[in-house]
Fold Probable dual-specificity RNA methyltransferase RlmN.
Amino acid sequence: MSEHEPIKTLPLVMEEPRGRRKPPRHLADLTLAERTELLVEHGLPGFRAKQLSNHYFSRLVDDPEQMTDLPAGQRAELVEALLPSLMTPLKVSEADRGTTVKTLWRLFDGALVESVLMRYPDRATMCVSSQAGCGMACPFCATGAGGLQRNMSTAEIVEQVLVGARSLTRGEVPGGPTRVSNVVFMGMGEPLANYKALMGAVRRLTAPAPEGLGMSARGVTVSTVGLVPRMRQLADEGIPVTLALSLHAPDDELRNDLVPINTRFSVAETVEAAFAYAEATKRRVSIEYAMMRGINDQAWRADLLADVLYAVGADWGWVHVNLIPLNEIPGSRFTRSHDADMDEFVRRLEARGIPTTIRDTRGSEIDAACGQLAATE
């Protein structure tokens, strides 16, 4: 369709405009060896890099006064070199009796991003942004409506997780002290369009301390609208994160409207790439499907989705479908599906042997859809 023609030029990686200032260089942007080299370049003792890394990733300290193993005379200089301030909280909203915390951040250049901490009885999850805004232009998404401002740096992505980790460790979230167990790249932005910084963040989160946070790769989920070449590249990284494919429609005609990148990579190509990821990593792929009333929630589309998933492989349980009750955006023509229609969608898929769940929705009273807080600012 003619209105989608410009979408075909969407780049796989969003390049930064020339002349744009870069975020401050932070130890989370660097390997431990690179951190050491940077301190030496500043005329500081290289071995202090390991101490700073331990404070950041292991002790979860953000107050230089608590870094007592650093000499008082050099402490400020060391912190300035490797632990510069990356983001400032503008608004913090809580829901679910304080176990859901959404934060709107202002980055060093004024760009706005959002992160969400969600504590459950058995886990604590951080949902993080990878870009300020998004260039994928999905019409039902609050972030997409604002367009792309810029890519985030590796450290800006990681810092969102560390802020949540500090809060959990200090017992600031109801339920007592705990650690971040899961990170989902489902906040603002298309993670695979910021591939280099994304993979830097994944490596920092999964590397053992003091190199990184020491999380299990199985606790990290990377979401994508379907940048097929990047999905295949991710499969070759050797890091078994969970892949979540935001499909939202099983047919090209509808998906072209809902997810414009589909005019470049069809439903069949995208699902084939997801199956290839599952085969390479032996990790089950999650199919994300936002349920929109009268748009994509018809029972026959559940049957078609099952056909599409079985077309690439049915030998093992390579896929799980995650239905998402739409977080509605004021003034949007897209609204949440009726519960009965979602239940029938589940029934149809499970009848075909496809594991399906309806996502537990949290924080609707605090503008849960990513991009809503930023839009109000």
Summary: Confidence is low (pLDDT under 50) at residues 1-9. The longest strand covers residues 87-95. Residues 137 and 145 are 6 Å apart (CA to CA). DSSP finds twelve helices and twelve strands in the chain.
